[in-house]
Structure to design on (754 residues):
């Protein structure tokens, strides 16, 4: 048994919460919204130890531990568990699949109650705000009025910023990692080319492929390959692949980086829905909390921020985190910012768990102590 | 009449040179190789003022001036013409479409003399070395034994390095701009995703689309969109597009950067061949002159180098030019290196012509004077 397995949670289970109808920011509504979620650790008596973990673009509710039969743990198992950054001996951790996703929560692949067929493109446009509104309902359902913290990287960090923006009274702290208040045109451009690759696949068929069982895997695979280039740094690619080449079984010569992309693209199609790709990247591209939403000037808001970026991340470059920090500081928030040195690029938020653990463990402990010691309101 | 038109060349004409059979580096051969080319200015009596201009990936032989009926000048007209960096009052300028291309030179879309049908994937694998070998034959055909210089950006710069590597005795100087001795895995990765986008288009049909007239435009367009993201910098995208949005005639809202990519992708399909895209990017990915080819230690080689890079170019980052310079200096070459400050990214080599002009004009004049004043051999 490896050290990692020793430190992992017992068997975990994905649960499903039907929150009923959800009114969207667009004005539309989705009925019978189901949110897939997992929880780790125990909620304490006064429900003051709950931390929401928000997943990145292609993540899911399974953030930590092993589900029955799993050979691999959840996507942030390095960070969540007994004694880890998000210490399940101390905190109650919640993670859910986003609205619009394809890993148990309601999204374009779900059955539309009105037609008894998959929504496909009849699914309404969703926003990061809608995702967080659904999370808020889940958190309330679990008996929590105010979160100790919300944390997440990449699109998870956007949700964290949205939590602080939309529910500043219901959250003690926020940990946005490798993220931005809004996408730059370069980030939008990468998303758009990925969307075009999906929509150019004839099997996409204007979103109607669920019933044929013949999904636009080629297009989705290309979209994912573009993503993987942006998740690594120039340097981490050099370290991992250099210009190494090898022959395939068919006698073709590929650079290792090509084989890596082919593999990553192909395996992604087995777990992700092409329409979800379109809806969720749109939500990211339209997201923008760089205005004054963070501040309700008339009242004192006491959210503490720990903002983390990584030096080699060129998809969500440090200057974007610095812009967030600048705005927060200008508005008087208690904000700590760390740029972690790393060569891993955007993937660093999933890989540099030693550095992240030191920062987050200490930050959370302080927020928790402050909350316990605060005079009751 | 604008200042630019005043300074431009008279009407120019594309010509075609049939060099016969070309033996390739792979050992294969192509028969009846035609190379499309243009020349500007006049070759002097001792044929000592000839400069070869090598085009980038999607360029062609039409580097400067206007052909009959053209509304726009050649792709480097800012740099080539009377009084310009490559001064046609002084130098004889040659530019040709690369072997494997689709703008007049023999490539996969050309008729295979054996079958009387387009080659498609029967076209043999080609290299940057093969392209330059064809250029060497063209230069000889024009009566030139030794070039005064070879210059070019991006893939043009690769050809320049190849000229210096393969024909060091037949070139006085070399001006590689925004280029590399070899592609990094990140550069290979972008090329490979573009190739996958083309090959995933059912209309690509394993390369056989010439006779149906129904080319893989969707795939080629996506490939080009990926390219355009890498040609600009994060900052130049912000300056050009920010997060501006507008409505299309159909009432859809697109970010300006999306409309730009759609336009650039679509227009590219009208002028470029998808199979050429596959062959030429492969040639770039396999190119590697980072070994000792530059040097034949036993003899003195007197090629002068002017290496230029641009600070915001992340597709061919300055560290790659610096590696070239380091190798050249180590081997004792007379090498000047300038990194030009610019926000334009990789596109800078086409846009920062004021800075380039100052550097190149002076460099070429010096090389020309040295050649004239050298003792006859």
């Amino acid at each position: 048994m490896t050290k990692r397995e020793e430190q992992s949670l017992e068997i975990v289970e994905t649960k499903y919460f039907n929150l009923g109808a959800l009114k969207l920011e667009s004005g539309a509504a989705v009925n019978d919204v189901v949110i897939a979620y997992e929880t780790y650790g125990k909620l304490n008596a006064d429900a003051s130890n709950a931390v929401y973990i928000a997943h990145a673009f292609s993540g899911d509710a399974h953030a930590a531990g092993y589900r029955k039969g799993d050979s691999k743990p959840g996507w942030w198992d390095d960070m969540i568990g007994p004694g880890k950054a998000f210490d399940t001996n101390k905190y109650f951790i919640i993670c859910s699949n986003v609205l619009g996703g394809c890993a148990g929560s309601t999204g374009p692949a779900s059955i539309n109650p009105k037609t008894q067929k998959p929504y496909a493109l009849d699914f309404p446009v969703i926003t990061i705000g809608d995702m967080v509104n659904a999370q808020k309902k889940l958190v309330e359902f679990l008996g929590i009025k105010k979160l100790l913290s919300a944390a997440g990287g990449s699109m998870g960090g956007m949700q964290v910023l949205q939590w602080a923006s939309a529910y500043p009274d219901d959250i003690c702290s926020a940990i946005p990692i490798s993220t931005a208040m809004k996408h730059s045109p370069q980030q939008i451009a990468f998303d758009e080319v990925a969307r075009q690759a999906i929509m150019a696949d004839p099997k996409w068929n204007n979103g109607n492929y669920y019933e044929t069982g013949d999904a636009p895997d080629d297009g989705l695979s290309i979209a994912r390959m573009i993503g993987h280039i942006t998740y690594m740094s120039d340097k981490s690619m050099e370290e991992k692949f250099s210009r190494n080449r090898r022959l395939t079984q068919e006698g073709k010569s590929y650079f290792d980086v090509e084989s890596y992309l082919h593999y990553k693209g192909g395996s992604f199609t087995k777990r992700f829905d092409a329409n979800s790709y379109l809806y969720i990247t749109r939500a990211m591209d339209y997201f923008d909390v760089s205005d004054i939403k963070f501040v309700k000037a008339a009242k004192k808001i006491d959210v503490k921020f720990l903002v983390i970026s990584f030096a080699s991340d060129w998809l969500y470059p440090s200057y974007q985190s610095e812009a967030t920090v600048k705005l927060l500081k200008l508005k008087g928030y208690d904000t700590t910012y760390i740029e972690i040195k790393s060569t891993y690029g955007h993937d660093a938020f999933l890989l540099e768990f030693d550095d992240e653990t030191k920062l987050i463990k200490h930050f959370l402990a302080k927020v928790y102590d402050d909350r316990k010691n605060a005079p009751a309101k």
Confidence is low (pLDDT under 50) at residues 1-6 of chain A.
